[in-house]
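Notebook entry, structure prediction.
Reason for the run: the old model in the group folder had no record of what sequence produced it. Starting over properly, with the input documented here first.
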Amino acid sequence: METLVEGAVAEVLRDRKGEAIRLYVAACAERMAPLFVGLRAYEPAREADLDFYAESVRDLWYADRPLADAVERVRLLDRFPELQPNEEGITDVADTYAFFAALSLRHALLAHGSGDADDAVSCGHVVLTAMGMLDQNVAGAGLLAEEHRLQSLSLSEDVSGLWDASVMAGRERLRAVSHRLHR
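New structure, fully documented this time:
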């Protein structure tokens, strides 16, 4: 499968490993978090899932060390309805982007725990796929190009504004999806 992650980004992930991988996936997960939390916030009996998701994204930012319980978190995340097989597929807009958010967190947790660059590239690929789909459905969104920029930023020498940029990008994504829901 061809990946959407730019070759230079994938190369840096493979060269640097460790903390660079953990920071990269933390930023990717942060940008997708509003999609999961915002699209699932009003579903009955999902409070524990929402708390787990938010706590996991928060803990990914501790990039100086791998998550000791990453495998257990992936096991818990795999129980989410978004990651369960569905014979009919996903056709609902909210379900589609909540799926991408859950899948990106899954890859982020795997990469954070293992330091595996391939898991990090998979995380970035999921996020880019979601933004590409959103760009196709929201005129003038430009979210795919912004995601490419932010993925490069997360591997730059100066990441001082990365968290803020990721939070803002996540909010913009939720607005774009919400716009699609209300058309």
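Summary: The two ends are 33 Å apart (CA to CA).
The old model has been moved to the deprecated folder.
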